[in-house]
Design a protein that fits this description.
The complex is a heterodimer. Chain A has five helices and five strands. By secondary structure, chain A is an alpha/beta fold. Chain A starts with a strand and ends with a helix. By secondary structure, chain B is of the alpha+beta class.
């Protein structure tokens, strides 16, 4: 079954860049987008999401808080947070929630590790 | 007025905001290293406004005297970047970056020097990241500490036309557990804004691609 990735970023450009990199790495994945945390939660409630890629600094609820919330609901879901804000506290919170870290600007190379790891976990779970 | 010609479309505005966000996030990492405590950032706001409106924007938030570290940048586009905070936060910031090892008198004695160095690290981190992403080199001047109201802070330079349009971007930051907050602002005149708009267009093409990618 095809996997669905949710891309959450208030920047449309950043969503385009992430979607493009994901398409290059996993052409079969279905990509859906959300511009903020509330929209992301609506998406998650509305359909099955397998992977989430989110921005840290967003208006409203920040990406790390959203990641923690999603982690509470989906203990196994591959989640990554993209930011240039690599402060120790931010990294520590991401690690504590078992959320991967991707540095911004997002590139195909920067996403490769997370995406291939996520694909592997999804395949294994489907077996 | 010339502000119509430099109006950014939705994607350009979005791209500039994202560039600023990444630049300031890197700058916050630098500041984090200096103060040893988490630096919290707001979502950046980017607007093309008149200089007097920029003064109003900061006045809406801060009534007290301000202190700023100002640094000029020059290259294909030029302008000034500012790290601004309330003057009453100034000594606290100096103490934070010296990890509370200074007495009040010592902190006061080296206040301007410490502020200039802090500004230099934060603003350079921000500008260098943006310049790299736009694939252009910017030369940064030495930082200077200025005090006063928003009017003085937002003077672009002595040659610029009064009432000109500037790019005003601001992001506010707070240092965790300390009552310190501030803003980062960037000012550019119209010719620089036009160049920046063009570079942003190139940046968008580079990261989004023209449909096919090799």
């Amino acid at each position: 079954m095809a996997s669905t990735v949710l891309i959450v970023d208030d920047s449309k450009l950043a969503r385009i860049v992430m979607a493009k990199a994901i398409t290059a790495l996993q052409p079969d994945w279905t990509r859906i987008e959300a511009a903020n945390a509330d929209e992301a939660l609506t998406r998650v409630d509305g359909q099955k999401i397998d992977v989430v890629l989110l921005d840290f600094n967003m208006p409203g609820k920040d990406g790390l808080t959203l990641a923690e919330e999603l982690r509470g609901r989906f203990p196994e879901m591959p989640i990554a947070i993209a930011t240039a804000n690599v402060q120790d506290e931010v990294i520590a919170r991401a690690r504590a929630a078992n959320v991967a870290f991707i540095s911004k600007p997002v590139t195909e190379d920067g996403l490769r590790g997370f995406v291939s790891g996520a694909a592997l976990r999804l395949r294994r779970a489907a077996q | 007025m010339t502000d119509q010609s430099i109006a950014l479309d939705e994607l350009e505005h979005d791209a500039l905001t994202e560039l600023v966000n990444i630049g300031v996030s890197r700058a916050a990492v630098n500041l984090r290293k200096m103060v040893g405590e988490q630096v919290l950032l707001s979502v950046p706001s980017v607007e093309v406004v008149t200089r007097s409106h920029a003064v109003t924007l900061i006045r809406e938030r801060e009534n007290d005297d301000l202190v700023a570290v100002r640094q000029g940048f020059e290259g294909v586009f030029s302008g000034r970047a500012l790290l601004i905070f309330p003057e009453k936060n100034s000594l606290a910031l100096v103490k934070a970056v010296t990890h509370d090892t200074l007495s009040d008198a010592e902190a006061h004695a080296m206040e301007d020097e410490a502020l200039a160095e802090t500004g230099n690290i934060v603003l350079n981190g921000c500008l260098a990241t943006m310049a790299n992403m736009l694939k252009k080199t910017l030369t940064m001047s030495l930082p200077e500490v200025i005090r006063g109201g928003g009017k003085i802070l937002f003077e672009l330079d002595s040659r610029s036309m009064p009432g000109g349009v500037v790019l005003f971007l601001y992001i506010n930051f707070t240092i965790n557990d300390r009552n310190i907050r501030g803003y980062i602002a960037m000012l550019m005149d119209v010719p620089s804004l036009e160049t920046l708009k063009m570079l942003i267009g190139e940046f968008i093409t580079r990261v989004v691609g023209g449909g096919e990618t090799p």
